Structure to design on (455 residues):
């Protein structure tokens, strides 16, 4: 058999890889990055929602809003009057003024060289008007929009209390109503879930898998090229066939990358599970109850659940299969090009065709979802990337996790990728023995096809 002895090469390659310093150091670095990312995702939302004074300390809050003096003329007639004293916590000097004083202060603010503003609240037939004015000389509109939102929220609470709603019940009446339009008979999905499922998840998953598959595929080529140029390959060929060498190295590198990838995934989930009860992740995963009036978190939790509706044991199996097939497909290509050179200096130029193929496949999977950012429909480029073998290893995991692809589509796509791996293996097996023992100028792609035809 042409592949007899691949087990020894496989074992040697795997053990050599996981014991290498680069493998250990890269694993440690990525684990630390995952730890920091988990902590950041978990705790940053609560930190950022704290008061600016708590985040930046004394003096920094004023710089954050850029307003030193704020005049408020409350002409709403609400009883009891809304309390705006909390704005002073942001290092803003707040002064309540009457309607008569507001006319004088309007001109004062217009001509002021200082960052001061005036907010006038009036009763209207449809509710209330909130007008904010700034100096002509400086633009503090962004800060005023933020303060206006805070004033409107306070005004709404004061109005509710004035008509008899108990203060402790305000959260219960802050109900978000989600209105959607969809094709008759299809399950509706909110906009945030659509963006996560159609764009963000596919883009992130394709980037992660590209890094692993392409990095370890290139290492396979480097290992084969190094052994060939250093004449270690000549020693190997006395005990095993050339086909056994590439098959053992591809599978050995594949197991090493698979081990690192899923070890990191396990660490990421483990760290997230530990820190989740203490922050935002606990609310997303359902281990911590979300406050009734936290509308945004309820929306995100609902969108997250919808976007990851297809994530289950079966989807994990699919991802493992796709990962291994994608790795084998690209590693066979990389190993083939790595065996064509006689000098290690020529490795990068030899791998250029594979780099172009890999980058094209990656961009098909990564960029295509951006065109569906605001749409529930999967665009034609995305659909093409699911079945094209150079892009399907990067595109499929994201749509399987989000449930965007049904079981029949997954079978067809993965089956076609597996067929391409078999065809690539057959192509390599026909010419590899000739290539690995070749010395001299690098063998071109055209010459490879001629070799395959002559066999």
């Amino acid at each position: 058999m042409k592949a007899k002895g691949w087990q020894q090469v496989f074992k040697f390659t795997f053990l050599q890889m996981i014991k290498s310093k680069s493998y250990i150091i890269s694993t440690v670095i990525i684990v630390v990055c995952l730890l920091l990312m988990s902590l950041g995702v978990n705790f940053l939302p609560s930190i950022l929602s704290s008061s600016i004074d708590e985040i930046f300390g004394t003096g920094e809050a004023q710089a954050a809003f850029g307003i030193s003096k704020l005049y408020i003329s409350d002409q709403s007639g609400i009883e009891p009057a809304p309390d705006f004293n909390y704005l002073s916590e942001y290092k803003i000097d707040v002064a309540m003024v009457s309607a008569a004083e507001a006319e004088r202060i309007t001109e004062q603010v217009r001509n002021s060289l200082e960052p001061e503003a005036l907010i006038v609240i009036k009763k209207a037939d449809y509710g209330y008007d909130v007008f904010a004015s700034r100096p002509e000389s400086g633009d503090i509109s962004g800060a005023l929009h933020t303060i206006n939102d805070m004033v409107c929220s306070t005004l709404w609470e004061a109005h509710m209390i004035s008509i008899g709603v108990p203060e402790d019940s305000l959260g219960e009446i802050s109900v978000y109503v989600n209105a959607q339009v969809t094709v008759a008979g299809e399950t509706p999905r909110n906009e945030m879930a659509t963006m996560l499922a159609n764009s963000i998840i596919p883009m992130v998953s394709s980037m992660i898998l590209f890094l692993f598959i392409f990095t370890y595929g290139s290492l396979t080529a480097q290992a084969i090229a190094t052994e060939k140029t250093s004449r270690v390959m000549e020693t190997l060929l006395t005990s095993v066939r050339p086909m056994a060498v590439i098959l053992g190295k591809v599978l050995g590198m594949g197991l090493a990358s698979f081990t690192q990838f899923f070890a990191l995934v396990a660490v990421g989930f483990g760290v997230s599970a530990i820190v989740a009860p203490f922050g935002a992740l606990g609310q997303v995963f359902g281990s911590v109850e979300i406050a009734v009036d936290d509308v945004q978190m309820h929306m995100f939790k609902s969108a997250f659940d919808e976007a990851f509706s297809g994530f289950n044991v079966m989807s994990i199996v699919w991802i493992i299969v796709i990962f291994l097939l994608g790795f084998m497909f690209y590693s066979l290509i990389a190993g083939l090009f790595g065996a064509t050179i006689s000098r290690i200096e020529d490795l990068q130029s030899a791998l250029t065709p594979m780099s172009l193929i890999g980058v094209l496949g990656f961009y098909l999977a990564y960029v295509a979802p951006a065109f569906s950012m605001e749409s529930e429909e999967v665009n034609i480029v995305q659909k093409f990337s699911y079945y094209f073998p150079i892009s399907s290893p990067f595109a499929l995991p994201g749509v399987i996790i989000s449930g965007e692809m049904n079981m029949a589509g997954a079978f067809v796509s993965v089956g076609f990728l597996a067929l391409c791996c078999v065809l690539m293996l057959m192509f390599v097996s026909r010419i590899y023995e000739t290539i690995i023992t070749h010395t001299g100028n690098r063998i071109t792609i055209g010459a490879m096809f001629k070799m395959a035809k002559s066999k």
